[in-house]
Amino acid sequence: MSKQPRQLSLGAFLMAGGHHVAAWRHPDVQANPLDFSSYKRTAQIAEAALFDAIFVADSVAASTDAIASHTSRSVYFEPLTLLAALSAVTERIGLISTVTTSYNEPYHVARKFASLDHLSGGRCGWNLVTSDAAAEAYNFGRDAHIPHAERYARAREFHKVVTGLWDSWADDAFGRDKEAGQFYEPTKLHVLNHVGEHFNVQGPLNVARSPQGRPVIVQAGSSETGRELAAETAEVVFTAQTSLAKAQAFYADLKGRLAQFGRREDSLKIMPGVFVVVGQSTSEAREKFEQFQELVEPQVGVALLGRMLGNFDLSGYPLDGPLPELPLTENGQQSRQKLLTELAGAENLTLAQLGRRIAGGRGHYSLIGTASDIADELQAWFEGRAADGFNVLVPHLPAGLEDVANYVVPELQRRGLFRTQYQGSTLREHLGLSRPANQFF
Amino acid sequence: MSKQPRQLSLGAFLMAGGHHVAAWRHPDVQANPLDFSSYKRTAQIAEAALFDAIFVADSVAASTDAIASHTSRSVYFEPLTLLAALSAVTERIGLISTVTTSYNEPYHVARKFASLDHLSGGRCGWNLVTSDAAAEAYNFGRDAHIPHAERYARAREFHKVVTGLWDSWADDAFGRDKEAGQFYEPTKLHVLNHVGEHFNVQGPLNVARSPQGRPVIVQAGSSETGRELAAETAEVVFTAQTSLAKAQAFYADLKGRLAQFGRREDSLKIMPGVFVVVGQSTSEAREKFEQFQELVEPQVGVALLGRMLGNFDLSGYPLDGPLPELPLTENGQQSRQKLLTELAGAENLTLAQLGRRIAGGRGHYSLIGTASDIADELQAWFEGRAADGFNVLVPHLPAGLEDVANYVVPELQRRGLFRTQYQGSTLREHLGLSRPANQFF
């Protein structure tokens, strides 16, 4: 048997209506963010196109700032109920959800993901994040946001408790011997008895070890602390990288940190986000994109810019003036802040122009062109050690993803870079990740 | 138009394998408690039979006592992920889940139920409970269980916060005016700013007001405090009643408490649990039941008895001796303790016999007979002001529920007591409950 050449992974980043901030205003877009049938259709498109996974972001607070009422992001499905519902109408595709460690209890989180892994036959993944919005703190009895360092210490312990709970039962604990009346073997049960800085959790989990052993651990932090946590515990990393060179540096840095934790390079997959608009020609793609750009209200673009720079309120500055000088953000967005400041200076952009510029891909690398152009870029990143795969954002859903499925995926398949059928049935199998052994048995 | 005569409601109480403690040992029973296809089949049977709802119980801890390994109750799906998955493969039936107020945060709970209500098109209900197992406390950083009175005070405030969050948005807040770029109307958003004894929650919820306005509130407490909370806040009450007379007394008591809260009698539906085994003849039904009874190991029945009496360990007492004298339980099971003590004395039962006796219906009223016999009893309770409907438990699933669907439901329909098609599309409509107005708009 010939060895299969290295294949890239594809995730479809779902967001009601699409990722472009003005998508909901487009005449073709179903603008109700709580319409299950749109999600179902999108998930089925991604599955038909053999994507590794669909992915949803999350926050445990509603945006209510000055421009919130001009965007479609205030209300949405809670992600675990959404993915559970989608698990019943899909067969093979992975299901990845963000859940914060800052304002949750590890027993609940371990349980819900284990349950989803059973419901889906081993298809789920957890994007383990720390919260970066103070509004979340106020919904959980706190007067102020947890500081950055403590959030990460809590996240690390949270991960330890959750993985410990997932390993509560040996894989073969449940013999279900009807004759003998023995449902499980008591020696194959481990009581965690975790006592730590942030959590005391007895266990065991009331869910059997799940099909994947453990749901896939995804992370998206890019600070020094975030990279260290990822190198120790993540199996997939989502990241926003704005050039091949930067993506290569990030890739090398993160892969280079794995050895100190006794991990192999291929045990962690790096998947930058890419914002993709496909056309039959480059000009057609640009025209498609411009249709959305024209719908961006200047104050909405500027507010989005303020959030991306680190939760700054830019509403007091003139729209046709330059980006004001801002203090260095404390919110873990320093590299993005630096990048956008450089961009504004280099191209002499007004505040409104810069806001419109980031309204599409929300800081992710943008590919606007033909399927062949886009495949060239993805291939260069993949073969140039900048990516193991991509998390795909499109301006509007489901139509934008249909374009990727119809044009970009076949081009990647022709080049031998992407599967032509699912080989496995679990998310781990799609991603080429091994099933973790139980730490207690 | 003639007025529709009063109709009874039916809930199907789902539990992996069935309610009989030995169901999993029966050769016909699929004994894997984490098999989604069994749940899907059961839910679809209940929906085809026009049940108002399916219902799942819950605990946030696994039983690991001496006989846990001889029962099938240690592991199961987390209920909100399970019901979300079932929402995608059903169309009309209600979806009710237990979630404790003792070891949860109101923002998470409000959000998940609101999300499920949107996913299901207005079909969900929340069985609001307080935890009664200390093992749950140990999974959430506590050394001891919250005392009974404090649990109820917390539950009451929890309900207030959750319903406040559900009313964060006016029903018509989301105009989604594409031309004007106005997604929602800012004056139609209410920020809760709850500051209380147990919770501080800012809000608003990041889910729009749900199809039912609010998911249906279900409760199951029977203590004085529990009844007061139900009279103030519940819309459905599940209860275990062991005779018509006791059920009538409970019904009169609870309905009598409503007026003080300005509520009408029909705003709260009382649904006792009934354990049902149907046969073509009484003797066939008894034989079916005996097949399960023979599979009960004596020590399992006795352990179940100990739990039902108020979490007592009876394993040290002789199986062929009498029920020992026990101190009055502190766990809110006093009435059940009194009832079982009387039963054991009146029939001179040994500990093993009493344990086996309660192994089937778990303390619920048992109906073992022909469809006609069973319908007679249900009708007597329904017309005798003991019940507005019933929560149906069967020894094994899905087969036991198929029997109810095939034989008991048609008999109730012939008598004009139960619908012959769904009239509405939401759980509230099935139950005849009005859609609550938004308290802030």
TrEMBL record, chains A, B:
Domain (Luciferase-like): residue spans on this chain: 22-383
- What's the domain of life for this entry? Bacteria
Q: What Gene3D superfamilies would the database entry show?
A: Luciferase-like domain (3.20.20.30)
In terms of SUPFAM superfamilies, this protein maps to:
Bacterial luciferase-like
Where do the annotations place FMN binding? Answer: D58, T98, H148, Y152, S222, S223
List UniProt keywords, sorted A-Z: Flavoprotein, FMN, Monooxygenase, Oxidoreductase
Specify one Pfam family.
Bac_luciferase
Gene Ontology MF term list: monooxygenase activity; oxidoreductase activity, acting on paired donors, with incorporation or reduction of molecular oxygen
Could you say which protein family the record assigns here? Answer: Belongs to the NtaA/SnaA/DszA monooxygenase family.
- Put simply, this protein is called Monooxygenase
